[in-house]
């Protein structure tokens, strides 16, 4: 129809939030603390904490680069599990102690 506008998913979600759900909003029974809904302040604090933990740690001396290694080198380090990049960095630092990089 001319002049009619189809709603986006976001608009539909916002409209649905304006009406209470069929069973009503959740009401905490006051017994199980794990089921208590977060307050606005708790929610904002959680969001702020999650955002603060993102990115490189303050004071990091590492720099980002692109480098190519043989597949078997990468596979060997990845097979050691989480933290393989740190272990690779440490192996290179150990190598520098006994070798000249030139």
In round numbers, the mean pLDDT is 84
Residue windows where pLDDT falls under 50 for at least 5 positions: none
Percent in helix: 40-55%
Quaternary status of these chains? single chain
Chart the SSEs and their pairings:
Blueprint: H1 9-18, H2 40-52, H3 71-78, H4 84-98
Task: Please outline what is shown here.
Helices cover 45% and strands 0% of the residues. The chain is mainly α and 102 residues long.
How would you describe this protein?
This protein is mostly helical and 102 residues long. It has one domain (9-98). It is built from four helices and no strands. The protein has helices spanning 9-18, 40-52, 71-78, 84-98. The chain is elongated. The mean pLDDT is 84.
């Amino acid at each position: 129809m001319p002049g009619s506008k189809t709603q986006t998913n976001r608009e539909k979600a916002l409209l649905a939030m304006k009406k209470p759900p069929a069973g009503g909003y959740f009401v905490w029974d006051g017994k199980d603390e794990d089921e208590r809904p977060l307050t606005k302040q708790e929610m904002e604090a959680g969001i702020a904490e999650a955002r603060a933990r993102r990115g490189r740690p303050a004071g990091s001396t590492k720099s980002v680069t692109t480098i190519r290694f043989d597949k078997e080198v990468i596979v060997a380090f990845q097979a050691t599990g989480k933290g393989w990049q740190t272990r690779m960095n440490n192996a290179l630092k150990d190598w520098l102690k006994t070798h000249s990089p030139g």
